[in-house]
């Protein structure tokens, strides 16, 4: 592979307010949690709620980021950006399928509006595979359309003397886990140097669809490692989101999250539940033996008396042990950055590994991101504390 000029701007220590949008998407990705789900999903904030969130985040965040529902088609996106600029936000980004950017005039609006961070959501390496992942009846031509949009965005940024940083996000499913390296190459050739690999959360989908797409770490990690080995020295930087990373090849390309990310949905009155039977485990079935001491971890809901107890070794993160034991807790990045797995330790002692999202005051109050916390005694943790952080 040719040696690129690496754009590391996606890995600066930004503080991102991430707005999850309503679906304006004109694709039909088979794993879309908005369209192909049998359960209730978090709703997008209303226009007035989004405005309030932007104003409340003044001074806390320096980036406004839009994801889900194809933000490029959101009718109020430029209005939200102007409000954010007037209130001190300096960086803007979005996650997109990039098909709309095949129109250079449309793409130009986003460059001139100040967008510099983009995630291209591309999950198939060939037109045939694209038609399976994104079945919109175009024989997979949407793949070429997305790559055309990627090329447009880079060229327009060059013409305007603007910086853009594009991350290729790959959702790993049974459909594509053997094709991670070809997927990488589809966008690398155009200049992409930042990559996110994230396994599908199939438990949120209709049962039959979820079973079709679900993939365990034992299945996909050999192919992740193949990618990490093959691309070492390429100048690319790769993050492994939403997985335990147990057994991952420690490539020089492998990055951990450095940005603080606050995800925002519409507020809901739905009470949290502990799922003891269904959910995305996303943990290897076989883990190397350990002689570390074992403790009992009890997780308890904040709104009811429902609880669950499982064993966790001192060299094991609490979230990983919960998932291995069949206790399905909320989680996102599993890098200590997004706060979705935050709990509050009310009994016992823990060791908190490197994390980003918690302040020392919050740590002193007992908060812990469970993806980066190990037990040092038997512990009791109140779960579902993300909203209590007040970020």
What does this 3D model show about the protein?
With 391 residues, the chain is α/β, with parallel strands linked by helices. The protein folds into two domains: 9-264, TIM Barrel (Alpha-Beta Barrel); 294-389, Beta-grasp domain (Ubiquitin-like (UB roll), Roll), CATH 3.10.20.30. The chain is built from ten helices and 16 strands. The protein has helices spanning 47-56, 77-86, 104-113, 127-133, 141-160, 180-188, 207-213, 217-230, 318-324, 360-364, and strands spanning 15-20, 63-67, 91-96, 115-121, 165-172, 194-199, 237-240, 254-255, 260-264, 294-300, 307-313, 342-347, 350-352, 367-369, 373-375, 379-382. A nine-stranded parallel sheet has the order 8-7-6-5-4-3-2-1-9. A hairpin with a 6-residue loop joins strand 10 (294-300) and strand 11. Helix 3 crosses helix 5. The longest helix is centred in the middle third of the chain and has 20 residues, at 141-160. The radius of gyration is 21 Å and the shape is globular. Mean pLDDT is 87; it is low at 1-11.
**Which residues form runs of ≥5 with pLDDT under 50?**
1-11
Tally the helices. Answer: 10
Within the largest sheet, what's the order of strands? 8-7-6-5-4-3-2-1-9
C-alpha end-to-end distance:
42 Å
- Rounded mean pLDDT is 87
* Gyration radius, in Å: 21 Å
Shape: globular
Write the layout of secondary structure elements.
Elements: E1 15-20, H1 47-56, E2 63-67, H2 77-86, E3 91-96, H3 104-113, E4 115-121, H4 127-133, H5 141-160, E5 165-172, H6 180-188, E6 194-199, H7 207-213, H8 217-230, E7 237-240, E8 254-255, E9 260-264, E10 294-300, E11 307-313, H9 318-324, E12 342-347, E13 350-352, H10 360-364, E14 367-369, E15 373-375, E16 379-382
Helix pairs in contact: 3-5
């Amino acid at each position: 592979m040719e040696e690129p000029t690496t754009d590391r701007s996606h890995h600066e220590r930004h503080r991102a307010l991430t707005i999850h949008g309503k679906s304006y998407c004109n694709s039909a990705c088979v794993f879309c949690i908005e369209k192909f789900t049998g359960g209730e999903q978090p709703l997008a904030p209303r226009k007035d709620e989004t405005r309030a969130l932007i104003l409340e985040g003044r001074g806390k965040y320096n980036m406004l980021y839009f994801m889900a529902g194809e933000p490029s088609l959101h009718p109020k996106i430029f209005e939200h950006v102007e409000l954010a600029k007037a209130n001190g936000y300096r960086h803007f980004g979005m996650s997109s399928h990039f098909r709309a950017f095949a129109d250079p005039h449309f793409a130009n609006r986003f460059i001139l509006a100040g967008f510099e961070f983009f995630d291209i959501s591309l999950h198939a390496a060939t037109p045939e595979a694209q038609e399976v992942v994104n079945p919109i009846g175009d024989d997979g031509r949407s793949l070429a359309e997305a790559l055309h949009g990627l090329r447009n965005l880079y060229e327009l940024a060059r013409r305007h003397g603007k910086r853009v940083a594009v991350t290729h996000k790959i959702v790993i499913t049974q459909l594509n886990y053997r094709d991670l390296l070809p997927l990488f190459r589809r966008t690398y050739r155009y200049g992409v140097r930042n990559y996110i690999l994230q396994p599908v959360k199939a438990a949120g989908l209709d049962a039959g669809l979820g079973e079709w797409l679900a993939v365990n770490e034992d299945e996909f990690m050999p192919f992740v490692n193949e990618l990490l080995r093959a691309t070492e020295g390429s100048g690319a930087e790769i993050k492994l989101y939403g997985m335990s990373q147990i057994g991952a090849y420690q490539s020089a390309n492998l990055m951990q999250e450095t940005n603080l990310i606050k995800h925002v949905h519409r507020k809901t009155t739905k009470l949290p539940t502990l799922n003891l039977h269904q959910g995305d485990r996303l943990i290897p079935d076989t883990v190397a033996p350990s002689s570390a001491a074992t403790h009992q971890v009890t997780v308890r809901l904040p709104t009811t008396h429902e609880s669950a107890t499982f064993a966790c070794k001192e060299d094991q993160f609490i979230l990983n042990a919960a998932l291995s034991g069949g206790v399905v807790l909320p989680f996102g990045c599993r890098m200590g950055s997004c706060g979705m797995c935050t709990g509050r330790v009310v009994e016992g002692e823990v060791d908190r590994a490197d994390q980003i999202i918690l302040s020392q005051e919050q740590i002193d109050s007992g908060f812990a991101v469970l993806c980066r916390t190990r037990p040092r005694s038997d512990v009791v943790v109140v779960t579902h504390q993300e909203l209590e952080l007040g970020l």
